[in-house]
């Protein structure tokens, strides 16, 4: 019998002393293959490599955490040296971590760390016994160094952790060694070339966003091995803690748009990495691997919240193959003081910021509103100009396009031709806007008359093709007058006076 799917989605969260692995195992029910074929259901494949993009919004403490992770249980994907791989044969080793997180070592906050977590059970009853027995184990584990670094002992802490399988809590001793701290950009460049397979590095996907995030001065890297004789979990995470409200933390975005959007109850995860779209790894192209790429968002707040609306599918359960044929959001917690949602890709290879966007607010007990549209293309220039897919000006353009222009045949025909022209140059313009603030402001000023004229369509009662053509031509002529005729007349008058 063919095993249809057992997927493990690893969600790694970085703490000060140890990266914890939280796994969500989804086992889909086995269905009769003849029924599946008749209904045209895609059958999931298997791939050890997984990628995740996680955003944690901590409203209570006014800070956010961005994390991009690459994970695998295959030693050919993330390749540790043999002396680290051999830790899988020591049943006392819980995890092995290398990180340059700030203050990862209590006694040397300006150093990076190697943290070896050892299971506490059977290592003695006194602190001195525990210390002696634990160091005997970990000193052997770092005798060959740590991927080119020479570790020095710093301290030992005790913690309670959830096992890799997620079925028990264990007390572990974190033995912390310090190593020389390197900038994340340099560290990621060296370690990714050394540890990640060339297939992962050349396939794009979330790797390219991790590479970009590593360039941030305050970004942090965490490399983890959770050893097991049968299947060891390996992960590489690039993360950044930011805030537009706390001066001691780096800003999440220079313009403060993310903070304003969150305060207004809107969230576009891609705003955090300043991208209009996010693409999956090329390793998943032409394969049905719906859970191997996950966008994970968590919101923590002091008040009782709920998801108000989303711009894509809502997946209410994960039980059968039919549940994951299309991409969309699945919420393990859609209301309360903690919102927890994951976006899965279905059979698609990329997703836009508009599709990922959702709104939230005070819990009223109402159902989630689905704002899915047939055309989810991004307004690239407007998004770059006004800072977010959720900016009012961008929303205005999208509403006019979806609710007015695309409602008629002539409008749809116009948009098809316009899109071919627009997307031939808009990516280059939007990229240059992000590099040049002066040019960005010039575009903002230039777009203002256009936005003003388009608002007229919101008040027009368009019920026929002729009315669409009439109003459309009128708006086009109005913009020709504002952008070309008026400046030409002004220039001519100035020349006469001179």
Describe this structure as you would to a colleague.
This protein has 498 residues and is an alpha+beta fold. It folds into two domains: 264 residues, no CATH class; 118 residues, no CATH class. It is 31% helix and 29% strand. The protein contains 14 helices and 19 strands. It has a 15-stranded mixed beta sheet that branches. Strands 1-2 form a two-stranded antiparallel sheet. Helix 9 packs parallel to helix 12, helix 9 packs across helix 13 and helix 13 packs across helix 14. The protein is elongated, with a radius of gyration of 26 Å. The N and C termini lie far apart (89 Å).
- 3D shape: elongated
Helix content: 25-40%
Class by SSE composition: alpha+beta
Count of helical segments? 14
Hey, roughly how much beta strand do the residues contain?
25-35%
Oligomer class = single chain
> What Rg, in angstroms, do the CA atoms define?
26 Å
Integer count of domains: 2
Stretches with pLDDT under 50, minimum 5 residues? 1-39
The overall pLDDT, averaged over residues, is: 81
Major β-sheet, in short? 15 strands, mixed
How far do the termini sit from each other? 89 Å
Query: How many strand elements?
Result: 19
